[in-house]
From TrEMBL:
PANTHER family: ALPHA-METHYLACYL-COA RACEMASE, SUCCINYL-COA--D-CITRAMALATE COA-TRANSFERASE. Gene3D superfamilies: Crotonobetainyl-coa:carnitine coa-transferase, domain 1, formyl-coa transferase, domain 3. InterPro entries: CoA-transferase_III, CoA-Trfase_fam_III, CoA-Trfase_III_dom3_sf, CoA-Trfase_III_dom_1_sf. SUPFAM superfamilies: CoA-transferase family III (CaiB/BaiF). The keyword Transferase applies. One of its GO terms (molecular function) is transferase activity. This is CoA-transferase. Keywords: Transferase. Pfam families: CoA_transf_3.
């Protein structure tokens, strides 16, 4: 049982945004019916692989599709269309992630699905939304980040943008879609009416720049990373190389942290530089750069252990997953039958969680 027990979701989405949204619902007890084509969700074929429930699966696919039911349907055939109609009649939520127009051509756009189930909550997830000049423009995550301005500030000291480490547009749309669907479910309890949700990756990501793109939002020039407090212009929100070629991060600009660190380094005279505007702290950044280069990362971790400073070593994923914090919080869970899952971030006090099985393609019908 879970908070969403009794909610039935029909999910036609693939890859990342939609499956991320629906796995969060499945983790809380919703019945998620994953509709797959004959060749399955492409994420099934994405390496690396591990053994889940006694069968080899993509780690990506397993972590985003556990606990769902897999039904294979050919939605271009009359038989497949009829079977989907049957499933929709008892559904609460319908999710799709195709380009605008595809569902209409298949005969399952919102109007058609609403005719089958009048109180359905229908969620379309796309790159740029269902209307507008970019509606039909093909794009995955990085292209959306590029057009939204985010990639420009995902840059190094020389100003060259680099490939981002997180698929922020995909993830923002998954979280936004989940929030919208849950709002619509709550609203339906009062009104008895369903809803149509046009969730765009672009629209979902854009609000995430409110704290960094203020000048552009206000109608002025675009911010430049090296003069921004959260993008590289502040000494205490910065990455530094260590003696062994690894890295550490200072992640808190509050003056109390600067005071604590500079006092410990016997350089409190540099405190005024930490109070200077972002972009005017180059002298302090240079000092800290030279300082961090004098010890290895491990030595700095030990040195900072008793200091009240927002400091962290920069870990790779292997090191991060081996950190005691992961085990203490139960954030990496081995399923019965094998295979690791990242635990859901949404967990409720007093309720146990364990990963439900990863569905085999077509395991629950065709």
């Amino acid at each position: 049982m879970g908070k969403l027990s009794g909610i039935r979701v029909v999910d036609l989405s693939q890859f990342l945004p939609g499956p991320m949204m629906s796995v969060m619902m499945a983790d809380q007890g919703a019945e998620v019916i994953k509709i797959e084509p004959a060749n399955g969700d492409p994420a099934r074929d994405q390496a690396p692989f591990d053994t889940y429930n006694g069968e080899e699966n993509s780690v990506w696919f397993a972590n985003l599709n556990r606990g769902k039911k897999s039904v294979v349907l050919d939605l271009k055939s009359e038989e497949g269309k009829a079977r989907l109609c049957e499933i929709i009649r008892s559904a609460d939520v319908f999710v799709e992630g195709f380009r605008p127009g595809v569902m209409k051509r298949l005969g399952f756009d919102y109007d058609r699905v609403k005719a089958i189930k009048p109180d359905i909550i229908y969620c379309s997830i796309s790159a740029f939304g269902q209307d507008g000049a970019l509606a039909h423009h093909p794009a995955h995550d990085m292209a959306v980040q590029a057009l939204a301005g985010f990639l420009a500030v995902n840059d190094g000291p020389d100003g060259t943008p680099v490939v981002p480490g997180a698929a922020s547009a995909d993830l923002a749309s998954g979280l936004t879609a989940l929030s919208a669907v849950l709002m619509a479910l709550i609203g339906r309890n009062s009104t008895g009416e369903g809803a149509y949700i046009d969730c765009a990756m672009f629209d979902s990501l854009l609000p995430w720049c409110a704290h960094t793109a203020g000048s552009a939002i206000a109608g002025g020039e675009s911010p430049q990373s090296q003069s921004q407090r959260s993008l590289g212009g502040a000494a205490f929100y910065q990455i530094y190389a260590t003696k062994d070629g690894k890295h550490v991060a200072l992640g808190g600009r509050e003056i109390k942290f600067a005071t604590n660190l500079l006092t410990a380094l016997d350089q409190l005279d540099l405190l005024p530089l930490a109070e200077a505007p972002a972009g005017e702290q180059r002298e302090l950044i240079a000092f800290l750069k030279d300082t961090f280069a004098t010890k290895t990362r491990a030595q700095w971790v030990e040195w900072f252990a008793d200091k009240d400073v927002a400091f962290s070593p920069v870990l790779n994923f292997r090191e991060a997953f081996d950190e005691p914090h992961i085990a203490e919080r139960g954030l990496l869970v081995e399923a019965e039958g094998g295979g690791n899952h990242i635990a859901p971030a949404i967990r409720f006090a007093g309720e146990e969680w364990s990963p439900r099985p990863v569905p085999k393609k077509g395991e629950h019908g065709a």
